[in-house]
Amino acid sequence: MNNTTPCLIKHPVDINASYEVAVAENPANRGASTSSRKKRAAIRHTHFWAPGRTLRIAFLKGDQGFKDATIAAANNWLPHVNLKFDFVDGEEGDIRISCTPGTYWSTVGTDALLQEEGATMGLSPDMRMPAFFAANVMHEFGHVLGAQHEHQHPEVNIPWNKPAVYEAHGGNADDYEEDGDHYDYVRDVINKTYFNRLDANEVRHSTYDPKSIMHYAIRQEWTHGDFKIDLNLVLSEKDKAFMAEAYPYPDTI
Ligand SMILES: [Zn+2]
């Protein structure tokens, strides 16, 4: 497994528009922020779809084996949520999946609505190790349902060895002696991807879960001490409970 090309979240360009579409879709996305921090609260919000919705999910390309494996893995979420997935071919869907070797990325939940065309998710069609492919698909569909990265949980306390993470991702100062701007850019991406914790308003609150499908695999040499996370291959019990709470059935509200 290659730990150095992790999933990337595609963040919205317009964070106010992100808030507007999220709240229009599901008013619970507004959260419970206090009015004293109104401006900040208007930006930091959740991205869940309206419970009961059918998400139309389009494959922009990919062979049948790729599509079948993607559908099978994504459907692992369905017993736990009041949502339906309608997989189709073509370019029209709430979610649109591209198939590009070596990349895994997605928008988060309702941010997909901000994008009128083109892919909202990228999956690598590498299925040499079916369990890893399935894990990556479940992870990306966790983003589709509105989940953020678990290693950036508001209460997480990973003993990062930051220089080692920078080094593993091409963020070494020595590599950029003549291009300081690009060095700053690379470090900034790594900080946002690995180290920055989320605001509590951006997530539905539950305790940190190292077994979450939404957690990056973390090599021991990237931390101090013996902290490490192996790639989680299945939905954790907390993953299931978290989504069941976000997408309840009417008689459970
Ligand atoms: Zn991710």
Q: Can you put this structure into words, describing what you see?
A:
The chain has helices at residues 15-25, 38-43, 64-74, 130-144, 162-168, 180-195, 237-246, and strands at 8-9, 54-59, 84-89, 95-99, 105-106, 121-123. The chain has 253 residues and is of the alpha/beta class. The chain has a domain at 8-148 and 237-252: 3-Layer(aba) Sandwich (Collagenase (Catalytic Domain)). It has a 6-stranded mixed sheet with strand order 1-5-6-4-2-3, covered by helices on one side. The N and C termini lie far apart (41 Å). The model has no long low-confidence stretch (mean pLDDT 89). Bound molecules: zinc ion. Residues 7, 9, 139, 143, 149 line the site of zinc ion (ZN).
What's the SSE blueprint?
Blueprint: E1 8-9, H1 15-25, H2 38-43, E2 54-59, H3 64-74, E3 84-89, E4 95-99, E5 105-106, E6 121-123, H4 130-144, H5 162-168, H6 180-195, H7 237-246
Parallel strand pairs: 1-5, 2-3, 2-4, 4-6
Antiparallel strand pairs: 5-6
Helix pairs in contact: 3-4
Bound molecules: zinc ion.
Zinc ion (ZN) binds next to helix 4.
Which keywords apply here?
253 residues; alpha/beta; Collagenase (Catalytic Domain); six-stranded mixed beta sheet; 7 helices; 9% strand; binds zinc ion
Please give a quick description of this structure.
By secondary structure, this protein is an alpha/beta fold.
